[in-house]
């Protein structure tokens, strides 16, 4: 049995860490608040005196290798459960057991003498290679604010989720938009674990289009080619185009929550029709939170390179797809999540390689974060289209392909990142030999 020192408690401040061991093994360390109990009990070996509790488990989901460092953590039956972001397989963080009948490995954590240590059953000489904090840190642009107009407007405590969504869609300042989006997700997620979850406010009407600050707007096909990334000008153009996509992606994830809040599945009888469960809203608010993070990373990198968001023309191609699918949740998920987002999985590795060749490693780091998150976004789209189809006894592949042929402009072109698509649940049946209706415009993919 090896006891591996993970460092002093005073340096442990994040909610999760990626543990890299000298034998190549990767684990995830969770630092969570102790769950309140009505019964007094002695402090466990993995607890701290100030109310934190530590758990360690495999960093890859045993189902398909999904990143448990990005897991969604819930409380169920007075225990913490971590759900894989790819296919929602859930695991008790203490026992490793899952409701799906599989199990992951968990490892005892010991808190003593002001240190956090990990126990592993091994005869090898295993050491800690590095401990990396996993952060959803958004790069807010907080300079001095001299007037109230420079600060975002927050709704009161009684505001519903749909009221918040409409408020964000009507917020034109991108910095305010990311602050409000991250606040809404945090508020919704926190209240989900309380006796008084946030009211949905179903019935609030979504605006026809999000409000935007004045910028130079062109059609998607009029955006100048960014080049191969060999020059600073080329890299700024690529980052600017991606930032534009990410800003629209915030609104798209927010819009799906309010626009389709009245959605019910179609069923042979009204008794079998189902409304969307609350986890639907949690998942898409999490996507919106990620997109806000992505926009902030790209905006910050543009400024570090001597430019700024808004310095170049932008297009509204993604919202055109949203408007075309505003009447049908199945179509919206198919086109936005499973075409545009999935196309991002195809092109991201090539984009990252261009920045790597230019030795722009700061941009590479941000783009890697974005790529990994976008796998989970395609997973979210696939999961909810599949859920709807299960309720309606339809084939998700057929529903997806039918919607693409009806609402997508142009062919769904390769090359495809088959590995990343498969990780997100999309096998080749979804996209091979697929095309939409003809158009002279090819809308830039991503989000």
Automatic annotation (TrEMBL):
<protein>
    <submittedName>
        <fullName>Rieske [2Fe-2S] domain protein</fullName>
    </submittedName>
</protein>
<dbReference type="InterPro" id="IPR036922">
    <property type="entry name" value="Rieske_2Fe-2S_sf"/>
</dbReference>
<keyword id="KW-0001">2Fe-2S</keyword>
<keyword id="KW-0411">Iron-sulfur</keyword>
<dbReference type="GO" id="GO:0046872">
    <property type="term" value="F:metal ion binding"/>
</dbReference>
<dbReference type="InterPro" id="IPR007402">
    <property type="entry name" value="DUF455"/>
</dbReference>
<keyword id="KW-0479">Metal-binding</keyword>
<dbReference type="Pfam" id="PF04305">
    <property type="entry name" value="DUF455"/>
</dbReference>
<keyword id="KW-0408">Iron</keyword>
<dbReference type="InterPro" id="IPR009078">
    <property type="entry name" value="Ferritin-like_SF"/>
</dbReference>
<dbReference type="Pfam" id="PF22543">
    <property type="entry name" value="Rieske_4"/>
</dbReference>
<feature type="domain" description="Rieske">
    <location>
        <begin position="16"/>
        <end position="118"/>
    </location>
</feature>
<dbReference type="InterPro" id="IPR054716">
    <property type="entry name" value="Sol_Rieske_ferrdox_dom"/>
</dbReference>
<dbReference type="InterPro" id="IPR017941">
    <property type="entry name" value="Rieske_2Fe-2S"/>
</dbReference>
<dbReference type="GO" id="GO:0051537">
    <property type="term" value="F:2 iron, 2 sulfur cluster binding"/>
</dbReference>
């Amino acid at each position: 049995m090896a006891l591996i020192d993970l460092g002093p408690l005073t340096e442990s401040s994040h909610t999760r860490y990626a543990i890299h061991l000298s034998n190549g093994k990767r684990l995830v360390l969770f630092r969570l608040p102790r769950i309140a109990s009505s019964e007094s009990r002695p402090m466990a070996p993995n607890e701290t005196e100030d109310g934190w509790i530590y758990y360690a488990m495999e960093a890859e989901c045993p189902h398909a290798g999904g990143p448990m460092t990005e897991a969604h953590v819930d409380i169920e039956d007075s225990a913490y459960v971590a759900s894989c972001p790819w296919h929602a397989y859930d695991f008790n963080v203490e026992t490793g057991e899952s409701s799906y009948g599989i199990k992951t490995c968990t490892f005892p954590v010991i808190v003593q003498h002001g240190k956090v240590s990990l126990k592993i059953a091994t005869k090898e000489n295993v050491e800690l290679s590095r401990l990396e904090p996993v952060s959803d840190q958004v790069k807010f642009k907080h300079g001095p604010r001299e007037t109230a107009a420079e600060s975002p407007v927050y709704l009161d405590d009684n505001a519903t989720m749909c009221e918040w969504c409409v408020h964000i869609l009507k917020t034109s300042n991108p910095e305010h938009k990311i602050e409000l989006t991250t606040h809404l997700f945090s508020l919704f997620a926190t209240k989900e674990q309380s006796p008084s979850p946030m009211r949905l406010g179903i019935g609030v009407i979504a605006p026809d289009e999000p409000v935007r600050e004045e910028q130079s707007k062109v059609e998607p096909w009029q955006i100048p080619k960014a080049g191969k990334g060999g020059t600073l000008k080329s890299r700024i153009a690529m980052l600017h185009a991606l930032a534009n996509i990410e800003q629209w992606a915030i609104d798209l994830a927010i819009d799906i929550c309010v626009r389709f809040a009245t959605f019910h599945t179609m069923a042979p009888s009204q008794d079998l029709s189902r409304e969307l469960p609350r986890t639907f809203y949690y998942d898409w608010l999490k996507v919106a939170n990620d997109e806000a993070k992505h926009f902030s990373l790209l905006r910050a990198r543009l400024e570090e390179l001597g430019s700024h968001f808004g310095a170049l023309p932008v297009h509204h191609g993604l919202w055109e797809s949203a408007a075309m699918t505003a009447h049908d949740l199945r179509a919206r998920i198919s086109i936005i999540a499973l075409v545009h987002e999935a196309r991002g999985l195809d092109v991201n590795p090539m984009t990252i390689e261009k920045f790597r060749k230019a030795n722009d490693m700061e941009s590479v780091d941000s783009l890697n974060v974005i790529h990994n998150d976008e796998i989970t976004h395609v997973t979210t789209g696939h999961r909810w289209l599949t859920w709807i189809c299960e309720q309606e006894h339809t084939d998700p592949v057929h529903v997806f392909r039918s919607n693409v042929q009806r609402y997508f402009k142009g062919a769904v072109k390769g090359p495809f990142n088959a590995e990343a698509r498969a990780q997100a649940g999309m096998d080749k049946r979804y996209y091979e030999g697929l095309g939409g209706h003809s158009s002279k415009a090819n809308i830039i993919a991503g989000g």
